[in-house]
Amino acid sequence: MNSYYGDQSFESSKQTVVTEDSRFRYTEDLKYVLKAGFGIRMCAYIMDLIIVFSIAKILIGPIIHFGHLEDVYLGIKMFSIENILNAIVYFSYFIFMTFFFKQTLGKMIFQLKVHSKLKQLTFMQVLTRELFGRYICNFIALLYLVVLFNPNKEGIHDMLSDTCVIKENKAYLLKTVRSL
User: Fold this and answer.
1) What is the pTM of this model?
2) Do the Cβ atoms of 47 and 109 come closer than 8 Å?
3) For residues 76 and 91, what is the distance between their CA atoms, to the nearest angstrom?
4) Residue-wise pLDDT tens digits, 110-154
5) How far apart are CA 30 and CA 91, in angstroms?
6) Quick one: which of 110, 106, 63 has its CA closest to 82?
């Protein structure tokens, strides 16, 4: 009996065998659909920058002002006390938010989450991604554009740490395929 599904009968199409190879293929296809692209990630990053610089101004501004540390620097003006404290706030925000919540406030607003390609997101992955990866990308800002041109929607910091950013509101699909 031929059906809508081509030469297969309706009865044989009901029997679906999930092999390890097909599960892997479905998982990889879903990960591609779930991965966040450049635009939404950039919006989340801009939101994070607004939050980080607001926190830094609230915490560091009074210390610098009342401590008269505006002109104190180590060697060159780039290494001013204010810049060093801003860098500590910046990197601490990204490291601790990503490690404890797997997302920053900007990613929460846009429903994005950092996902490990391995089983569980480790502190070393977060440190590699948020400290070393961000430092490299901040040093050469054009490296953030790698996400735009990479077919896997991954940035340099994702590649260094075996992570990806996924759309949280569709992440349940990945769990469903893994449970098959």
Assistant:
1) 0.77
2) yes
3) 21
4) 999 998 888 889 999 999 999 999 999 888 988 889 998 988 889
5) 31
6) 63
